[in-house]
């Protein structure tokens, strides 16, 4: 009896027990003829014969037969069972049977205690697995679950289960749970639960055992301190019910933050394969709490859900706009919603499609062209389904828009039924709307099936195939079967887009700004070769060469006579600016007045913040040309009109992206297409 059964397998242990039973009880306990001479289904008459003939033999017509086969024969040759014994005989037989069972059970208990007295099971087991003890002793079959003593706080919590409320009615359901939760809101225990925690559906304090209750408050204290990393299903649901009722946390966003932390812990346990999953239940509680308390919908939805809802709304609006503008059936043009752009519509189609355009190198490289083709195919399919089918195009892809009842906090023990705070509806996403009307909750969804659409994926794949073939892309795709009418729509849109792109390419020109420096250098060389000696040496008339030239350069003085309105305006700007002074000594050539080389330097030298860095001479020239007057002559030593036109064009290139001033038969003038823009720029 000193064998170590802790190292013996279960099969070997059962074999040894069966052999001991055979040695101790002989054939009275085990029979090798089980089911051999007895029917599988035994009736009351069979049990009665067994009590009357314990040896199992019955004498009939001088022959001994088995009791299980004993039957009576009727005069007509049919067999009949023996008559039913009286009530007294049945009671007497039952008493003898119970006595035999009691002796067998006592013998079994004695043998089990003898064999398993020193056996200790490996690991921890839940107390519910042991059940009621079958015998006496200290072995496996006599293990007794120790009782747990509750602290005073938990004793008062248990006492609330039989108490009554202020209205005299017994506390039960939500009011009872809230009262118990508030009583033990700050209670901390130090009795962790040992063993496997049983899962309880919709748990409350009332349905858990005392050991589970103390284990929960111990785990809750560790959770609040941030030390607990696991979240058993029963404990997680109890904690979520407390948070929803405002116990242990401030109502509002702090409750949502705690619930989201609890959801992450539950998701970690799901990944580890530990216990039943309640992650989805906690997610529903977060959504319900955000809806009832009118919090930010982004707290209850993921980025993927919001992206899906936005894509559904874009497709619905695009289809409605197409049908209303075409006046299909009951749609009216004045009811047409705003049509989204081709790029937005294409992005929405990609978000709902099982074939993502982002995974195609061709569609990524030709995103603009693909967007135009996709939008065109979508419009044609919307018109086709709207005119020839009973189901619209988007309904066929995502299902019908539907409204169904919505019940927040299902199964959660609450003190009062939930109601929507304030007025108005709650929009969780662009495709999900929660309403509360006349005490009834409803949720309206613009879709029926949430997920990627395979039909839309086949359409985008067909677009990719057709565009690769039309653009002669190096790697063609293997086509998938699509309806003939749909393929014709795709081919028509692809050809149209390709022709439009080729037409734009023919009218496109490219300006290489890197060559402007060489062009300017060549122009300066040509200008220098065309200058006469007087101009190259800075020729000054003799009447003005005998005195110092200390007057500022002015356009009006060079032209002589009364200045025109545009010249007077230019002179006013020049008077406000510091004059550019050049000192000329008698007998010396007049130096060329310094000219700013950049817009910033010109503005600083003129004292005026001219648009686009125009200097006073360039500004006077542009204003004169806007007034449809001839170009004013330049002062001696200053750049020529041609050079002023070139420098002004260079500075005004950022305004229109093109040449603004050009030379004609009558001299320089402003291009008519840019005249209004240039005038508005100078008037600012």
Task: Give the structure's gist in a few sentences.
The chain is built from 26 helices and ten strands. It has 684 residues and is mainly α. It is elongated and about 150 Å long.
Overview features:
single chain; 684 residues; mainly alpha; four-stranded antiparallel β-sheet; 10 strands; elongated; disordered N terminus
Terminal-residue CA separation: 111 Å
Q: Unreliable segments (pLDDT under 50, ≥5 consecutive)?
A: 1-5, 27-36, 66-88, 115-144, 543-568, 570-608
Strand arrangement within the widest β-sheet reads: 5-8-7-6
Helix % is 40-55%
Q: Give the overall shape.
A: elongated
Beta-strand content estimate: 5-15%
The residue-averaged pLDDT reads 76
What's the main sheet like?
A: 4 strands, antiparallel
Multimeric state: single chain
Q: What does the radius of gyration come to?
A: 49 Å
Given the helix and strand composition, which structural class is it? mainly alpha
The total count of strands amounts to 10
